[in-house]
Here is the input.
Amino acid sequence: MFGNREGVLDTLFEFAFKNPNVILEFKTKSDNIKHFLENDVPPNILCTWSLNTKTIIENEEHLTASLHKRVNAARRLADKGVKVGFHFHPIVEYVGYLDEYKEVYTMLTTKFKPDEVALISFGTLTFIKPVIKQLRGREFRTKITQIDHVDASGKTSYPDSKKVEMFKHAYESFSAWQIDEERVFFYLCMEEHQMWEKTFGYQYATNNDFESAMLGAYSKKLGQEYLLGGINPF
Here is the structure.
């Protein structure tokens, strides 16, 4: 978002070049990619965007780049050879939300090839009670607190049935990116293990297994398979 202010990107680029055993992910809702376009990007850097529907961006994600600006920024970096990724977190329920999210998913599968994309993540709204109280006390308007709150391991979130609906719909929308040799790594963010089985059709036995699979997939996509250390990414 802030570009190379105070030389922060120069420093991170230098760190990445000097430490090829590290993978850095830059995640944003902006389209400020000027420094990336004008400089050599280390091969162990991923650039990812948090995406949402136009309805959510225009009503809830204030002062951020539009959906098309974010996607076009990702396209420009992919054209340069930088691996990109996308986060749908939070997916938010509203009238007609599945159709509008489908439009975004289709936009990505149309504009990008799976070998250009390292990752796709899905998640939704999860709160602790103090955060809900703070949101309701702020001056800016939001409808986010109107979700159907149910207990989620000590926090509040959507009911499992709603999560299955939104995550399964999202995952199946990218089916073409799950069968190719260059397939994309998909994951659920901050969800219980059993939710993976219900929506993806599989789950990792432990968090360590998940992290190993993620490292393996990213390393393979970045062409740095020496990082695998015997790990089978799939």
